[in-house]
Amino acid sequence: MELENVEKVATEEIEACEDLDQLNETRVKYLGKKGLIQGFMSKMRDLTNEERPKFGALVNKIKSAVEEKIRIAQEKLEEKKINKKLESEAIDVTLPGYKFNTGVIHPLMQTIEEIEDLFIGMGYEIAEGPEVEEDLYNFELLNLPKDHPARDMQDTFYINPNTLLRTHTSPVQARTMQAKKGEPIKVICPGKVYRRDDDDATHSHQFMQVEGLVLGKDISLADLKGTLHEVAKKIFGDERTIRLRPSFFPFTEPSVEVDVSCFKCNGKGCPICKNSGWIEVLGAGMVNNNVLKMNGYNPDEIQGFAFGIGVERFTMLKYGIEDIRNFYMNDTKFLNQFKGVK
Ligand code: DAH
Fold first, then answer.
1. Residue nearest to atom 13 of ligand 1 (CA)
2. In terms of domains, do 273 and 319 share one?
C-alpha cells in the first residue's frame, strides 16, 4: 500500500468497526508492533539521508492521525455499548412490587394505648410493677390479710407461700404509695395478671388490666365518676353515660361497680345489655382508709379513688368479640380485622 493511502484506508476501516473488538483488531493491524505503519518505519533504512527525515515526519503524522481516529471511534463504541446495556436492563416501573405483610398492633394493646392517651392527656403518669409479686403487695397492703375471705375471689397461682403471680394490677397502687411517701398521686398501671381459672369463652388464666389511682386533697367520688365518664366516652363513644352501683372490694370504701349505657341499643334493651340498657364494665371506689394508713398516707389529709379496668372485657364489648381466647391464638385472620381501627 502506498503511504499516502494509509490514512484514508485506515479511517474507512476504523469508521466501519461495529464494536470494540473489531476496533482493537484494526488498531493492531495499523499501529501494532508488526502493523502497517511500523512496516513503513522499517523501510526507512532503504532511504537516503536526505529523504529519511521527511519520510519519518510523514509516517509520524499519519500515525498520530490514525491514533486520534481510533481514540474517537473508541469513545463512540464505548458509549454505544453502555447505551445498549442500559436498554437491555431497562426497569418496567409499572410492574407490581413485592408485597410485604405488615403486622397489626394487637387489639388489646390498641385498647391500652387508647386508655393511656386519655389519661396522659389528663396529667396522669404510667406506673408499672412486677408480675411475680409478693403476697404483701398483692393482698396484705390492700387490706386483705392472710385469712381474709375475699382472697377466695381471686384464685391465685402461688410460687411459694409469700410469692405469687399477681392476680390484679392493684399491687402497683401499694408500690406507688410506698414510693411517693405521702405525696399526691395520679397514675395508671397497665399490665398482665394471672388467675387460676379454667380457660373458656369468657375466662383466661392470664389477662390484662389497667389500674388507676388518684390521691390528693379533696378528691371525691364525683371526681371518680367524672373521670370514668371520660373513659366510657373515649372507648365506647361520645353519647355514653355511666352509673355507679354499690359493691364491695376490700381496698376501697365505698366500692362501686360501674355500668356504661348500652352502645348497641342506646339504653332501650338488647341481648348485649341483657335488656337492662346497661353494661357492667369495671370496679372502683374510694381508697380504703386502712390501705392509705398501711402505705404511709394520713386519711385525714389526703384521700382519693382507684379503679380497675379489664382490658379484654373492654375490647370484647367494643368490637363484639365473643370468645376471649381469640386474643391469644395469634390467628392473623382475627388480628387483621384490627388493622388501622384505632
Ligand atoms: N383489683 C380488682 C380486680 O382485679 C379490680 C379493682 C376494683 C381495682 C376496684 C380497683 C378498685 O382499684 O378500686 O378484681
1. 284
2. yes
- Which structural domain range is residue 131 located in? 107-338
- Ligand 1 pocket, mutate which of 244, 251, 305 (most atoms under 8 A from CB): 251
Q: What distance in angstroms lies between residue 284's CA and the mean position of ligand 1's atoms?
A: 6
The three-state (H, E, C) secondary structure of 130-145, written as one string:
CCEEEHHHHCHHHCCC
pLDDT at 340 over 80: no
* Residue 284 and residue 149 share a domain: yes
Residue from 137, 153, 168, 169 to probe ligand 1 pocket by mutation (most atoms less than 8 Å from CB): 168
Q: What is the mean pLDDT of the chain?
A: 93
- Check residue 342 and give its pLDDT: 60
**Which of 37, 59, 88 is the endpoint of a domain?**
88
Look at residue 2 and tell me whether its pLDDT is greater than 90: no
Q: How many whole angstroms from 271 Cα to the centroid of ligand 1?
A: 26
pLDDT digits (tens, 9 = 90+) for 150-203: 787 779 999 999 999 999 999 999 999 999 999 999 999 999 999 999 999 999
Residue with CA closest to ligand 1 atom 8 = 308
pLDDT band at 119 (very low <50, low <70, confident <90, very high): very high
Cα 17 from chain centroid (whole Å) = 60
| Ligand 1 pocket test, candidate residues 137, 151, 170, most atoms within 8 A of CB | 170
Q: Own/partner pairs for 237-242, CB < 8 Å, 24+ apart?
A: 237/263, 239/266
Nearest residue to 230 via CA among 303, 304, 123: 123
Do residue 204 and residue 312 come from a single domain?
yes
Query: What is the CATH number for 126?
Result: 3.30.930.10
Largest CA distance in the chain: 132
- Is 18 among the domain residues? yes
Does ligand 1 have an atom closer than 6 angstroms to the CB of 285? yes
pTM of the model: 0.73
Pair (54, 202) in one structural domain: no
Number of domains the chain contains: 2
Q: What are phi and psi of 128, to 5 degrees?
A: -130, 160
Q: In terms of domains, do 177 and 283 share one?
A: yes
